Amino acid sequence: MNPTKNTKIKGFIAAPLTGFNEDGSVNTEIVSAYAEMLKSGGVAGVFVNGTTGEGVSLTLDERLRLAKSWIAEKSDAFKVIIHLGYADQETSIKIARHAVENGADAVGEIGPCSNQPDTIEELINRIAPTAEAASKLPYYYYHIPSINKVSFPMADFLAEADGKIPNLTGIKYTYEDLDDYERCVQIKDGRYDILFGRDEILIDALKRGAKGAVGSTYNFMTPLYSKLRKAFDEGDITEAERLQALSVKAIEALVKSGSFFSALKTVLGKFGLDLGGVRQPNVNLTADENDQLLNALKETGAFEFLNAHTT
User: Fold this and answer.
1) Which residues belong to the active site?
2) Could you tell me the pTM of the whole model?
3) Whole-number Cα distances in Å, 225 to 51, 107, 163, 209, 304
4) Strands 106-110 and 139-143, how do they pair?
5) Which domains does the chain have, with CATH numbers?
6) Nearest 10 degrees: CA dihedral of 32, 216, 74, 106?
7) CA Rg, the chain, in Å?
8) Rounded-to-integer distance, Cα 248 and Cα 256, Å
9) How far lies 123's CA from each of 59, 150, 216, in Å?
10) How confident is the model over 35-62, as pLDDT tens digits?
Protein backbone atom coordinates (compact mmCIF):
# COMPACT_ATOMS: atom_id res chain seq x y z
CA MET A 1 0.00 0.00 0.00
CA ASN A 2 1.28 3.45 -0.90
CA PRO A 3 -0.61 6.10 1.11
CA THR A 4 0.78 8.93 -1.00
CA LYS A 5 -1.15 7.62 -4.00
CA ASN A 6 -4.49 8.47 -2.37
CA THR A 7 -6.66 11.00 -4.17
CA LYS A 8 -6.03 14.55 -3.02
CA ILE A 9 -8.58 16.05 -0.65
CA LYS A 10 -10.83 18.59 -2.33
CA GLY A 11 -13.23 20.87 -0.53
CA PHE A 12 -13.34 22.13 3.03
CA ILE A 13 -12.12 20.28 6.11
CA ALA A 14 -13.42 21.62 9.42
CA ALA A 15 -11.24 21.79 12.52
CA PRO A 16 -13.85 20.67 15.09
CA LEU A 17 -14.02 22.05 18.58
CA THR A 18 -14.00 19.73 21.56
CA GLY A 19 -17.23 19.46 23.49
CA PHE A 20 -17.01 19.62 27.28
CA ASN A 21 -19.57 18.59 29.88
CA GLU A 22 -20.46 20.85 32.81
CA ASP A 23 -17.93 19.07 35.01
CA GLY A 24 -15.15 19.79 32.49
CA SER A 25 -14.93 16.26 31.12
CA VAL A 26 -14.81 15.64 27.37
CA ASN A 27 -18.19 15.06 25.74
CA THR A 28 -17.81 12.38 23.08
CA GLU A 29 -21.54 11.75 22.87
CA ILE A 30 -22.10 14.96 20.93
CA VAL A 31 -19.72 13.96 18.14
CA SER A 32 -22.36 12.14 16.11
CA ALA A 33 -24.72 15.15 16.03
CA TYR A 34 -21.75 17.43 15.33
CA ALA A 35 -20.68 15.27 12.39
CA GLU A 36 -24.20 15.25 10.94
CA MET A 37 -24.37 19.05 11.16
CA LEU A 38 -21.05 19.38 9.34
CA LYS A 39 -22.08 16.90 6.66
CA SER A 40 -25.35 18.77 6.08
CA GLY A 41 -23.35 21.96 5.58
CA GLY A 42 -21.20 20.43 2.84
CA VAL A 43 -18.04 19.86 4.87
CA ALA A 44 -15.68 17.28 3.31
CA GLY A 45 -14.14 16.08 6.57
CA VAL A 46 -12.50 16.97 9.87
CA PHE A 47 -9.01 17.53 11.29
CA VAL A 48 -9.44 16.23 14.85
CA ASN A 49 -7.61 17.32 18.02
CA GLY A 50 -5.77 20.20 16.40
CA THR A 51 -5.43 23.80 17.54
CA THR A 52 -9.15 24.60 17.29
CA GLY A 53 -9.98 21.40 19.17
CA GLU A 54 -7.77 22.53 22.08
CA GLY A 55 -5.68 19.41 21.51
CA VAL A 56 -2.79 20.67 23.63
CA SER A 57 -5.14 20.90 26.63
CA LEU A 58 -6.41 17.33 26.32
CA THR A 59 -5.04 14.22 27.99
CA LEU A 60 -3.94 11.24 25.92
CA ASP A 61 -7.04 9.28 26.91
CA GLU A 62 -9.31 12.17 25.94
CA ARG A 63 -7.66 12.51 22.55
CA LEU A 64 -7.90 8.80 21.86
CA ARG A 65 -11.59 8.71 22.78
CA LEU A 66 -12.33 11.74 20.60
CA ALA A 67 -10.37 10.26 17.71
CA LYS A 68 -12.30 7.00 17.91
CA SER A 69 -15.64 8.83 18.09
CA TRP A 70 -14.87 10.95 15.02
CA ILE A 71 -13.47 8.02 13.03
CA ALA A 72 -16.80 6.25 13.56
CA GLU A 73 -18.45 9.05 11.57
CA LYS A 74 -16.24 8.81 8.48
CA SER A 75 -17.51 7.97 5.00
CA ASP A 76 -16.28 8.21 1.43
CA ALA A 77 -17.51 11.82 1.40
CA PHE A 78 -16.41 12.70 4.93
CA LYS A 79 -12.72 12.17 5.68
CA VAL A 80 -11.29 12.01 9.21
CA ILE A 81 -7.71 13.19 9.77
CA ILE A 82 -6.29 12.69 13.26
CA HIS A 83 -3.75 15.14 14.65
CA LEU A 84 -0.81 13.39 16.34
CA GLY A 85 1.26 16.25 17.75
CA TYR A 86 2.00 15.96 21.47
CA ALA A 87 4.61 17.25 23.90
CA ASP A 88 6.60 14.01 23.69
CA GLN A 89 7.06 11.84 20.63
CA GLU A 90 6.34 8.52 22.34
CA THR A 91 2.81 9.76 23.00
CA SER A 92 2.49 10.98 19.42
CA ILE A 93 3.46 7.50 18.28
CA LYS A 94 0.75 5.96 20.48
CA ILE A 95 -1.83 8.30 18.91
CA ALA A 96 -0.54 7.37 15.45
CA ARG A 97 -0.92 3.65 16.11
CA HIS A 98 -4.39 4.22 17.52
CA ALA A 99 -5.39 6.13 14.38
CA VAL A 100 -4.22 3.22 12.22
CA GLU A 101 -5.94 0.60 14.35
CA ASN A 102 -9.25 2.46 14.33
CA GLY A 103 -9.28 3.23 10.61
CA ALA A 104 -8.58 6.97 10.27
CA ASP A 105 -8.30 8.28 6.73
CA ALA A 106 -5.05 10.16 7.40
CA VAL A 107 -2.94 11.72 10.13
CA GLY A 108 -1.31 15.11 10.63
CA GLU A 109 1.41 16.33 12.97
CA ILE A 110 2.51 19.79 14.03
CA GLY A 111 6.26 20.36 14.09
CA PRO A 112 8.08 20.46 17.45
CA CYS A 113 6.78 23.18 19.80
CA SER A 114 9.88 23.07 22.01
CA ASN A 115 13.54 22.51 21.25
CA GLN A 116 12.78 23.52 17.70
CA PRO A 117 15.00 22.07 14.96
CA ASP A 118 17.74 24.25 13.50
CA THR A 119 17.66 22.64 10.06
CA ILE A 120 15.18 20.96 7.74
CA GLU A 121 17.15 17.73 8.07
CA GLU A 122 16.69 17.85 11.84
CA LEU A 123 12.95 18.48 11.41
CA ILE A 124 12.66 15.46 9.12
CA ASN A 125 14.52 13.29 11.62
CA ARG A 126 12.22 14.48 14.41
CA ILE A 127 8.93 13.68 12.66
CA ALA A 128 9.97 10.54 10.76
CA PRO A 129 9.34 8.10 13.66
CA THR A 130 5.78 9.37 14.13
CA ALA A 131 5.09 9.12 10.41
CA GLU A 132 6.50 5.60 10.44
CA ALA A 133 4.11 4.61 13.23
CA ALA A 134 1.27 5.55 10.86
CA SER A 135 2.97 4.17 7.75
CA LYS A 136 -0.29 2.69 6.44
CA LEU A 137 -1.93 6.12 6.35
CA PRO A 138 -1.28 9.38 4.48
CA TYR A 139 0.81 11.70 6.66
CA TYR A 140 0.43 15.51 6.56
CA TYR A 141 2.98 17.82 8.15
CA TYR A 142 1.17 20.63 10.01
CA HIS A 143 2.92 23.91 9.22
CA ILE A 144 1.87 26.65 11.66
CA PRO A 145 4.77 28.96 12.59
CA SER A 146 2.49 31.18 14.69
CA ILE A 147 2.30 28.32 17.19
CA ASN A 148 5.68 26.58 17.09
CA LYS A 149 7.96 29.16 15.38
CA VAL A 150 9.24 26.51 12.93
CA SER A 151 9.30 28.56 9.73
CA PHE A 152 11.43 26.77 7.17
CA PRO A 153 10.18 27.21 3.58
CA MET A 154 7.90 24.24 3.11
CA ALA A 155 8.87 23.82 -0.54
CA ASP A 156 12.42 23.19 0.66
CA PHE A 157 11.08 20.80 3.29
CA LEU A 158 9.16 18.80 0.68
CA ALA A 159 12.16 18.65 -1.63
CA GLU A 160 14.37 17.31 1.15
CA ALA A 161 11.79 15.01 2.75
CA ASP A 162 10.77 13.44 -0.56
CA GLY A 163 11.56 9.73 -0.32
CA LYS A 164 12.73 9.97 3.31
CA ILE A 165 9.20 9.84 4.72
CA PRO A 166 7.42 7.33 2.44
CA ASN A 167 3.88 8.21 3.53
CA LEU A 168 4.37 12.00 3.41
CA THR A 169 1.30 13.04 1.46
CA GLY A 170 1.23 16.79 1.94
CA ILE A 171 1.03 19.73 4.29
CA LYS A 172 -1.63 21.42 6.35
CA TYR A 173 -0.33 24.87 5.45
CA THR A 174 -1.40 27.45 8.05
CA TYR A 175 0.79 30.40 7.11
CA GLU A 176 0.69 33.50 4.92
CA ASP A 177 3.73 32.87 2.69
CA LEU A 178 1.77 32.47 -0.54
CA ASP A 179 4.85 32.27 -2.76
CA ASP A 180 6.12 29.32 -0.73
CA TYR A 181 2.61 27.83 -0.77
CA GLU A 182 2.51 27.97 -4.56
CA ARG A 183 5.90 26.32 -4.78
CA CYS A 184 4.60 23.53 -2.57
CA VAL A 185 1.57 23.04 -4.84
CA GLN A 186 3.79 22.80 -7.90
CA ILE A 187 6.74 20.79 -6.58
CA LYS A 188 7.30 17.32 -8.06
CA ASP A 189 4.68 18.04 -10.73
CA GLY A 190 1.98 18.61 -8.12
CA ARG A 191 2.62 15.38 -6.26
CA TYR A 192 1.78 16.70 -2.80
CA ASP A 193 -1.60 17.61 -1.30
CA ILE A 194 -1.24 21.11 0.17
CA LEU A 195 -4.27 21.93 2.31
CA PHE A 196 -4.54 25.65 2.99
CA GLY A 197 -5.18 26.75 6.57
CA ARG A 198 -5.95 30.48 6.57
CA ASP A 199 -9.70 30.90 6.00
CA GLU A 200 -9.47 34.70 5.72
CA ILE A 201 -7.24 34.57 2.62
CA LEU A 202 -8.66 31.48 0.94
CA ILE A 203 -9.13 33.34 -2.34
CA ASP A 204 -5.40 34.10 -2.50
CA ALA A 205 -4.63 30.40 -2.06
CA LEU A 206 -7.12 29.49 -4.80
CA LYS A 207 -5.21 31.79 -7.11
CA ARG A 208 -2.08 29.80 -6.22
CA GLY A 209 -3.67 26.43 -6.97
CA ALA A 210 -5.35 25.36 -3.72
CA LYS A 211 -7.88 22.53 -4.01
CA GLY A 212 -8.52 21.73 -0.35
CA ALA A 213 -8.51 23.74 2.86
CA VAL A 214 -8.66 23.18 6.63
CA GLY A 215 -10.00 25.78 9.02
CA SER A 216 -12.05 26.83 12.02
CA THR A 217 -14.81 28.74 10.24
CA TYR A 218 -15.59 25.78 7.99
CA ASN A 219 -17.47 24.59 11.08
CA PHE A 220 -20.35 26.88 10.12
CA MET A 221 -19.53 29.04 7.06
CA THR A 222 -18.92 26.34 4.47
CA PRO A 223 -21.92 27.54 2.39
CA LEU A 224 -20.20 30.93 2.02
CA TYR A 225 -16.88 29.38 1.05
CA SER A 226 -18.58 26.99 -1.37
CA LYS A 227 -20.17 29.96 -3.13
CA LEU A 228 -16.80 31.72 -3.08
CA ARG A 229 -15.14 28.70 -4.68
CA LYS A 230 -17.89 28.39 -7.29
CA ALA A 231 -17.60 32.08 -8.21
CA PHE A 232 -13.83 31.74 -8.48
CA ASP A 233 -14.06 28.66 -10.68
CA GLU A 234 -16.54 30.45 -12.95
CA GLY A 235 -14.22 33.45 -13.29
CA ASP A 236 -16.41 35.81 -11.26
CA ILE A 237 -13.55 37.19 -9.19
CA THR A 238 -15.56 40.23 -8.09
CA GLU A 239 -18.16 38.00 -6.41
CA ALA A 240 -15.48 35.75 -4.96
CA GLU A 241 -13.72 38.75 -3.43
CA ARG A 242 -17.03 40.07 -2.05
CA LEU A 243 -17.62 36.76 -0.28
CA GLN A 244 -14.06 36.65 1.02
CA ALA A 245 -14.56 40.14 2.45
CA LEU A 246 -17.63 38.88 4.33
CA SER A 247 -15.55 36.04 5.70
CA VAL A 248 -12.90 38.49 6.88
CA LYS A 249 -15.49 40.62 8.67
CA ALA A 250 -16.92 37.56 10.41
CA ILE A 251 -13.48 36.36 11.49
CA GLU A 252 -12.64 39.83 12.79
CA ALA A 253 -15.81 39.76 14.90
CA LEU A 254 -14.86 36.35 16.29
CA VAL A 255 -11.35 37.53 17.17
CA LYS A 256 -12.56 40.80 18.70
CA SER A 257 -14.84 38.86 21.04
CA GLY A 258 -11.78 38.22 23.19
CA SER A 259 -11.96 34.41 23.12
CA PHE A 260 -11.90 32.92 19.64
CA PHE A 261 -12.69 29.32 20.54
CA SER A 262 -15.47 30.30 22.93
CA ALA A 263 -16.87 32.52 20.16
CA LEU A 264 -16.87 29.61 17.73
CA LYS A 265 -18.85 27.57 20.26
CA THR A 266 -21.33 30.42 20.62
CA VAL A 267 -21.99 30.36 16.88
CA LEU A 268 -22.31 26.58 16.81
CA GLY A 269 -24.85 26.95 19.60
CA LYS A 270 -27.03 28.61 16.95
CA PHE A 271 -27.17 25.17 15.36
CA GLY A 272 -28.48 23.72 18.61
CA LEU A 273 -25.06 22.21 19.23
CA ASP A 274 -24.11 22.70 22.88
CA LEU A 275 -20.35 22.16 23.11
CA GLY A 276 -20.03 23.59 26.60
CA GLY A 277 -17.22 25.88 27.62
CA VAL A 278 -13.52 25.99 26.81
CA ARG A 279 -10.62 24.67 28.85
CA GLN A 280 -7.94 26.86 30.41
CA PRO A 281 -5.87 28.75 29.39
CA ASN A 282 -8.75 29.75 27.07
CA VAL A 283 -11.58 31.75 28.65
CA ASN A 284 -15.34 31.61 28.28
CA LEU A 285 -17.33 34.56 27.00
CA THR A 286 -19.99 36.00 29.28
CA ALA A 287 -23.66 36.06 28.28
CA ASP A 288 -23.36 39.77 27.39
CA GLU A 289 -20.24 39.10 25.32
CA ASN A 290 -22.04 36.31 23.49
CA ASP A 291 -24.90 38.67 22.63
CA GLN A 292 -22.45 41.32 21.42
CA LEU A 293 -20.69 38.73 19.27
CA LEU A 294 -23.88 37.50 17.62
CA ASN A 295 -25.02 41.06 16.92
CA ALA A 296 -21.62 41.89 15.43
CA LEU A 297 -21.77 38.79 13.22
CA LYS A 298 -25.25 39.64 12.00
CA GLU A 299 -24.03 43.11 11.05
CA THR A 300 -21.31 41.61 8.84
CA GLY A 301 -23.90 40.07 6.52
CA ALA A 302 -22.22 36.67 6.80
CA PHE A 303 -25.06 35.06 8.76
CA GLU A 304 -27.15 34.58 5.63
CA PHE A 305 -24.55 32.07 4.45
CA LEU A 306 -24.59 29.88 7.53
CA ASN A 307 -26.00 26.38 7.45
CA ALA A 308 -29.80 26.30 7.19
CA HIS A 309 -29.99 24.72 10.65
CA THR A 310 -29.27 28.05 12.36
CA THR A 311 -32.03 29.49 14.50
Assistant:
1) 142, 172
2) 0.95
3) 21, 24, 35, 16, 12
4) parallel
5) 8-236 (3.20.20.70)
6) -140
7) 18
8) 12
9) 25, 9, 26
10) 999 999 999 999 999 999 999 999 999 9
